[in-house]
Each structure stands twice: as C-alpha cells, then as structure tokens.
Amino acid sequence: MIGLPDELQWIDAHHHLWDLSRIEYPWLLAKGEARFFGQPDPIRKDYLNTHYGADTAGRIYRSVHVQVGARAGLELEETAFVNECSDQTDGCFPAAAVVAVDLGKHDIEAELDAHQSYAITTPKVDEKK
Question: Which CATH number fits domain 10-121: 3.30.457.10, 3.30.750.24, 3.20.20.140, 1.10.150.130?
Fold first, then answer.
C-alpha cells in the first residue's frame, strides 16, 4: 500500500465474486475470445470470499460487489449469491452490491422489488461514535 497508516479502514468500492457452478457468465466462459482486458482464461475459475480475503490480506474493512455480467435471466440469482456471500462474512464482504437490472423491461418495478428483497441491496450505515 502507498505508505498509508495501517489503522485506516479501507473500503474496496468495486470487486467481483463468482461461482461458476452456480451462475453462468458468458463473457467468462467464452474460450478463445479476447476481452478488453485480455484473455479471460487465467480467471476462468471460481472466485469466492476465501480468494478475495487471501488477495486483500485482511486490509479491507468492507467491500462493494459489482455485478459480473451473468447470463440474461440469472441477474436475480447473482444477487442471491452475493447476498449469501455477505451473510457468510457478517455483512462485510460485500457490504453492498451494485446489481444488474434491465431498465428497459416492462415489469421493472417487480424486478427492482425482487432485488431489493435481499439485504445486500439496502446496506446499513456503520455509525461510529
């Protein structure tokens, strides 16, 4: 880290988790296709909180998960998965989520309500005294 004090509480404002046995991510599973960041072959494996924790070496206090591009129709399943990840870490990893919602859908209110039924979409503010 850039020489900043260890006592600072870091928040990772954008990270991803995925479980390939649970949710399909077409961009990640498309073999041989180069993406804007390069070839996804090296990351074509589960990336769960255990991996995230090891990569961040305990330096992160809270995190925000950003949707990963699940196959159309699996967006709510991804929100459920991320909510479970949060529950497994007492609401820390992630503490909040940016979810995928198709704003052009006719039944947008129902889709938003479905996502908002998960605690991860309405995080609590940690008030320090």
Answer: 3.20.20.140
